[in-house]
Design a protein that fits this description.
Helix content is 84%, strand content 0%. The protein is built from three helices and no strands. Helix 2 runs antiparallel to helix 3. By secondary structure, the protein is an all-alpha fold. The model has no long low-confidence stretch (mean pLDDT 76). It has one domain.
């Protein structure tokens, strides 16, 4: 048996024991069907993180807005506001808390952008 005959015999043996290649269209449909739930979860997490990040931005802007409004009125009068029943220091604490929350929302926003890419 020569080398060419051996190679042909091995190729014939391999061809007998390997299944035929699947049709590319069917293979692509199977891959898309299998990965569809992963894409849905990733899209849902992305939307959730983007919403949380945007909420953090609104929290910061609204708390700073109220802080600036109340700080100017409290500093001018130097008394506790009888209507709101609060002073400037409670609003400073609220702003600090809102900044901590917004940092968490910023992390969520970054996760949302990571899920988007």
């Amino acid at each position: 048996m020569s080398e060419k005959e051996l190679i042909q015999a091995l190729r014939a043996l391999i061809d007998q024991h390997t299944p035929p290649a699947p049709e590319p269209r069917l293979l692509a449909q199977e891959i898309v069907r299998r990965d569809a739930w992963r894409l849905r979860i990733l899209a849902g997490l992305s939307i959730l993180f983007w919403i949380a990040g945007i909420a953090g931005i609104f929290i910061v802007f609204f708390s700073l807005r109220w802080y600036l409004i109340l700080s100017s009125s409290v500093i001018e009068s130097l008394v506790i506001d009888p209507v709101l029943g609060t002073d400037i220091f409670s609003w400073e604490r609220a702003v600090n808390r809102s900044l901590e929350v917004s940092m968490g929302c910023l992390g969520a926003w970054m996760l949302g952008s990571l899920c988007t890419t």
